[in-house]
Amino acid sequence: MSKSLVVFALLSIGAMPLPAQKALTGNSVPPASVPFSSPVVHALQISAGDLLDLSVFDTPELSTKLRVDEQGRITLPVAGGLSVMGLTAEQAGQVIETRFHDTEVLKDPHVSVTVLEYATQGVTVLGEVKNPGVYPLLGAHGLLDLISAAGGVTSSAGKDITVTHRDDPDHPAIVKIESKPGSTAAFKVDVRPGDTIMVSHAGIVYVVGDVGKPGGFLIDNNDRLTVLQALALAQGTNRTASLNHAKLIRKTEAGREEVPVPLKKILASKVPDRMLADGDILFVPTSGAKDALRDVESILPAAAGAAIYRAP
Question: Does residue 236 contact residue 212 with C-beta atoms inside 8 Å?
Fold first, then answer.
């Protein structure tokens, strides 16, 4: 198993998918051998749609449940409208006490506010994860905690993970999952309520036909793969392969097109190697004339059913 496979297996194995609206609780305990900073606990701020429980000491007639409207305001019993957008529950209680006092509703009010429902404090996890969705960020949780909550990454996940902060969308943090054991880069990203986590997609190049290990080979967005490199990943051609009839099947805006690949000349360094792109299918037929003339429709099922491997 390659080092990259090990890293992505760690992201997937043991990930217990949670329902999209189930809150994360508790702290994940990292391996003792991986030193990294503990996730930061961010004070949750009240926002539109949140449901508040207002409790006024010794005054039950003023105690009630209030829903924050689209403008971030609540309507207090007797004391009227008040903006609580961006405040913590504790700060909201202090502001409400001041309003009750200033409007002479109560001489010495004592108010406590509890947020019963956070409507917009979740973290959105998208891209190449098994269970994309919104996961409430309650407590201290890091990047890998949230990816694990989303079921872990898929087999076609890339190495790049982008974290976009809601209050600073123009400066996203991009984390590259390293293949080195013990890498701690992914653990140090500060994840805040309202953030979006995007797990990138790795490109796939398929090599099918008369080769040692037919399959699809993942390439990350920043990497490239040539015909010779793809053949090397597929453990080369077999002795019965027809090198003069290899073809490249590529999806274009006009549909799929077939491009002859002079594989024998490329192997002999008589023509330049060719760059492959995401979704390309390199087909190497056997020396039989019938196989060499196979069309696109007969080759596609072989690519669709091919095993997927990650390029080292």
Answer: yes
β-strand partners of 282: 207, 248
User: The domain that contains 172 carries what CATH number?
Assistant: 3.10.560.10
> Tokens standing for 5?
């496979």
Q: pLDDT by residue (tens digit) across 71-113?
A: 999 999 988 999 998 888 899 999 999 999 999 999 999 999 9
Q: Cα(261)–Cα(207) distance, rounded to whole angstroms? A: 13
Q: Buried b / exposed e across 211-240, counting CB within 10 Å, b at 16+?
A: beebbbbbbbeeeebebebbbebbeebeee
CA distances from 72 to 47, 49, 75, 84, 86 (A): 6, 8, 10, 6, 8
- Of the candidates 45, 83, 90, 51, the one whose C-alpha atom is nearest the C-alpha of residue 67 is 51
Question: Domain range for residue 99?
Answer: 51-117
What local confidence, expressed as pLDDT, does residue 290 receive? Answer: 56
In a domain, 46, yes or no: no
Give whole-number Cα distances, 105 to 54, 56, 74, 97, 273, in Å. 15, 12, 17, 10, 82
pTM here is 0.56
Contact by Cβ (8 Å): 196, 123: yes
- CA dist., res. 257 & res. 171, Å (int): 39
Asked which of 172-186, 207-221, 248-262 is least confident by mean pLDDT, the reply is 172-186
Q: Tell me the CATH number at 113.
A: 3.30.1950.10
C-beta separation of 117 from 141 below 8 A: no
Phi then psi dihedrals of residue 60, to 5 deg = -60, -25
**Total Cβ atoms within 10 A of residue 14:** 9
Tokens matching residue 42: 């961010």
Instruction: With residue 101 as reference, give the H or E element that holds it.
Output: helix 89-102
Q: pLDDT tens digits for 104-147?
A: 999 999 999 998 877 767 788 999 899 998 887 665 667 888 88
